[in-house]
Amino acid sequence: MIIATAEPWIEAPLRRYVDDARASIALLLHPSGQVLAQAGFTRAVDVMSACALASAVHATSVELGRQLEGRAFRGLHHAGAAKQLYLVRAETARGPYICLTVFDSESSLGLVRMYFDELSRELSAAAPPLPAIREPTLAVNFENELNANLAALFGRGPQQ
Amino acid sequence: MSSAFTPVLDELTRHRGVRASLIVSESDGLVVDSKLRFGEHGDRVAALAASIFRKARLSARAAHLGAVSFLQLDAEHGRVCAVGRGDLVLMVVADPAANVGLIRVELLKALGHLA
C-alpha cells in the first residue's frame, strides 16, 4: 500500500494502523482540511477532495454535537453496502487531527476503533512539540536580547 | 442496565474460572451485552474474537465443512470459547484451568437464547 506523509513521525504509526486494522484507505488531516498523511489513495485529486469532505463532515458533526449535548461528537461511523468509513478526532501535542478510515468486510468497526486508540496513543507519543513562536524584535528590548544572546554565545551567565 | 441477554450472561459467568461472557455482533465486532470481571477489556476481546469467529466461519464454509458450531482458542493466560447464531456471537473468556467441557455445554445450551 502506498503511504505518503507530510511529517516523518506519522509514517510508522500510520503504517502499523493500516496493517493491523486492515483498512483500505486512511487519511490523517488537520481540522482545516490540510492533509498530513495518506495511505491507499492512488490519485492526488482523490486525497484533496477526501480532505475537504472529511473536514466539512467533521465540522458539521462537531457543531451538531455541541448543539445536541453541549460538546463535540468525537467519532462518526457510516456503513455502506460494501465499504464503511470511520471519521474520528485524535489529540496530539501538535493539536487535534482528524483520521478518516475506510474499510470493508475484511475488518470491522470494533477492530478499527480498537486500533485507532493505539494509533492515537502512538501519535501522541511521537508528535514533537510545536516550535516556540518568537516574538518580533522591538527597539525597546533589542539591547536586552542582544546581551542575552552574547552571554549565551560566550557561555556567560545573564547580565544583571 | 439489563437486557434480554443478561440472564444468559449471568449464568455463564457464574461458572468457576469464567472471567467474562459477552454477546458480540460478528459483522462489526461491537459488544451487544457483557458481564465482565474487574480488569477485563471487553471491547478489545469482543473486536478480536468476533474477527476470529468470522474468519473461522468463512474458512469452514470455504472448506465445505459447514457451519462452525464451537470455537476454542487456548492461549498462555486464558482461553476464549465462542458459539454463534446469525450475526451474534456468544463468547466466554476463561482461565486456562477452567472446565472447557462444561463451558461448551453451557454455551451450546445458551445458543437458543440468541435466536
Structure description:
The complex is a heterodimer of chains A (160) and B (115). Chain A has one domain: Dynein light chain 2a, cytoplasmic (Beta-Lactamase, 2-Layer Sandwich). Chain A contains 4 helices and 6 strands; from the N terminus they run E-H-E-E-H-E-E-E-H-H. Chain A has helices at 11-21, 44-69, 109-126, 139-153; strands at residues 3-5, 25-29, 35-39, 75-79, 84-92, 95-103. In chain A, strand 4 (75-79) and strand 5 (84-92) form a beta hairpin. In chain A, helix 1 (11-21) packs antiparallel against helix 3 (109-126). The longest helix of chain A is centred in the middle third of the chain and has 26 residues, at 44-69. The termini of chain A are far apart. The mean pLDDT of chain A is 85. Chain B has a 5-stranded antiparallel β-sheet, with helices on both faces. In chain B, 35% of the residues lie in helices and 30% in strands. In chain B, strand 1 (18-25) and strand 2 (31-36) form a beta hairpin. The longest helix of chain B is centred in the middle third of the chain and has 21 residues, at 42-62. Classes of the chains: A alpha+beta (160), B alpha+beta (115). Chain A binds chain B through residues 79, 105, 107-111, 113-114, and chain B through 24-25, 27-30, 43-44, 46-48, 50-51, 54.
